[in-house]
Design goal:
The chain is an alpha/beta fold. The chain contains 18 helices and 27 strands. Among the domains are: 179 residues, 3-Layer(aba) Sandwich (Rossmann fold), CATH 3.40.50.12780; 125 residues, ANL, C-terminal domain (GMP Synthetase, Chain A, domain 3). The longest helix is centred in the first third of the chain and has 17 residues.
Length: 547
């Protein structure tokens, strides 16, 4: 069975059960399995009438919404290959992806009007541009106009060998690459993870807010929800985020480090740490407090609580554990549909990304410490890029680009990125990831990037968080100096950080220094800052501000 077969099965067995939930102001619109099937077939009929054929690439450009998944189902039903795009993708990246993938059409949905103004300029005139149901916009063929009264077809037969989607990487190390996944690799990844991720149970409720164009959200939320016959709820806006999750109270919640940091700040704004420490030590009162906090976050029913995409500071994991919110770090990437490892329930090992999922072979390269994976759910390759495919899959092993180690008790630890390593002018190699963790634990810091290619000693460049605005410059300096001195005590001389430099401006998706999944584009940050910070690097202060 493919993921489409699972949808068709639930559509037949439980046609009136709620599959998708869409918030609108204070209300929710419910979509049954039957309704979604009808809507998907209407779009399929329209695509067929336009002459699109099996294997044609069709892009989905939208933020998360019920229509996103309905459109994806329609593309599966027709054997079309979906090419999802981040809703906030910049025009230059979008142009490259559309050209590389050879997309013949784009289905647009929930978008920021300012982003769309730039995005629409790079869409070729030969390309059909449609709008999703409920998201009509000028310049697109309206859903009501496109999905006319065509005869409703049945889904075509597809096999596990057929290509289902091309997921473009977020581009941390260069141009995005098109990761080709088949129906077989997708369903295999979902099944392998299903026991540990709680997909073999009834009554699962998911909330979808991280981009569906990313393999992790697509795998756990969309495909996981379809596989288990669960209910997927969406978030209307940033302003309604908390309310929508509170209304949902999902059984499964997946967050990235930034989300957990924001949750922590939100809680501490209402209950200062010293007061919380007192209340948590009072029997009965502590249970009431914990229940109240979990309910306010929308996590009162959460059984599977995950974090991924980047390392989560150990102090934050321990902090949430005191509130009986046990965050399990997981590890994967687009190339393996985000399935390599996950911390087991009841056996979380902080500082690791958990134990390996079954059915795979993972080894650590003795020379480079690179993690290599062999499994049956790897990508087919990079679309139209045999050279990079051959460099990434060698003798059936995926070269992950991550450095790591396997402990004696079977936990996988990430120790850095192969491509992130740089050499100082002393000729010493620096792996920045582990050196950055103590700084990430400081709540006054939003982002951290260690660099030093043109200098004898590495240094750390940081971007301050909103919390830092409530402190004086002297308080910030003292906090940063303390962490810097503690960090330098426990490392080799060549790893000691010369100083901390505070960036004048934040690093964002809009200025091109973060990927859509909020990862640092290290090479671009280094290119932008490193040489111009020479005068600041050479002054005698341990903490300096960019001028």
């Amino acid at each position: 069975m493919t993921i489409l077969d699972y949808f068709l099965s639930w559509e037949e067995q439980t046609p009136n059960n709620i599959f998708l939930r869409q918030p609108k102001d204070a209300d929710w619109k419910n979509y049954s399995w039957k309704y979604c099937g009808i809507k998907a077939r209407q779009l399929l009929a329209a695509l067929k009438a336009q002459g699109f054929e099996k294997g044609d690439r069709i892009s989905i450009l939208s933020a998360n919404c019920a229509e996103w998944i309905i459109c994806d189902l329609a593309l599966m039903m027709g054997g079309y290959i979906s090419v999802p795009l981040y809703a906030n993708i910049n025009a230059a990246s979008m142009k490259k992806i559309l050209k590389d993938s050879g997309c013949k059409a784009i289905i647009t949905g929930k978008l920021n009007p300012e982003d769309w103004l730039l995005q629409k300029e790079v869409i070729g005139k030969e390309m059909k541009v449609m709008s999703m149901d409920g998201h009509d916009r000028k310049g697109c063929v309206l859903w009501s106009e496109f999905c006319q009264s065509y005869p409703i077809p049945e889904p075509i037969e597809i096999s596990c060998e057929d290509t289902m989607t091309i997921i473009y990487t977020s581009g941390t190390t260069g141009d995005p690459k098109g990761v080709v996944h088949t129906f077989g690799s997708v369903i295999t990844a979902v099944k392998v993870a299903s026991d540990e991720v709680g997909l073999n149970q009834k009554g699962n409720k998911f909330v979808s807010y991280l981009p569906l164009s990313h393999a992790a959200e697509r795998g756990l939320i969309e495909c996981g929800g379809i596989y288990c016959g669960g209910t997927i709820s969406f978030v209307e806006s940033l302003e309604s985020f908390s309310k929508n999750i509170q209304d949902t109270q999902p059984t499964h919640f997946f967050g990235v480090p930034r989300i957990w940091e924001k949750f922590q700040i939100k809680i501490l704004e209402k209950i200062p740490q010293n007061r919380m420490d007192i209340l948590l030590n009072i029997p009965f009162i502590n249970k009431i407090l914990i229940k109240k906090i979990k309910t306010s976050l929308g996590l009162s029913n959460a059984e599977i609580i995950l974090s991924g995409a980047a390392p989560l500071a150990p102090d934050i994991i321990r902090w949430f554990m005191k509130l009986e919110i046990n965050i399990r770090e997981a590890y994967g990437m687009s190339e393996n549909f985000n399935v390599i490892s996950m911390n087991p329930a009841g056996a979380i090992k902080i500082g690791s990304v958990g134990k390996l999922f079954p059915g795979q072979e993972v080894i650590i390269d003795k020379r480079t410490n690179e993690i290599k994976q062999k499994c049956s759910w790897l990508m087919k390759g990079y679309y139209r890029n045999p050279k990079q495919t051959a460099e990434t899959i060698v003798h059936d092993y995926l070269l992950t680009g991550d450095m790591g180690e396997l402990t004696e008790d079977g936990y996988l630890k990430i120790t850095g990125r192969v491509k992130d390593i740089f050499k100082t002018t002393k000729g010493e190699y620096i792996s920045p990831s582990l050196l950055e963790i103590p700084f990430l634990e400081l709540k006054i810091i939003e982002q951290v990037c260690i660099m030093g290619t043109f200098y004898p000693q590495p240094f750390v460049l940081i971007s301050l968080s909103h919390l830092a605005k409530t402190l004086s410059k002297n308080e910030i300096v003292k906090s940063l100096e303390k962490v810097l001195n503690q960090q330098n005590e426990g490392v080799m001389e060549y790893q000691r950080l010369k100083k901390v430099i505070v960036s004048k401006n934040p690093w964002t998706i809009e200025n091109g220094l973060l990927t859509p999944t909020l990862k640092l584009k290290r090479s671009l940050i280094s290119k932008k800052y490193e040489r111009k910070l020479k005068d600041i690097y050479n002054n005698d202060e341990l903490v300096s501000w960019e001028k």
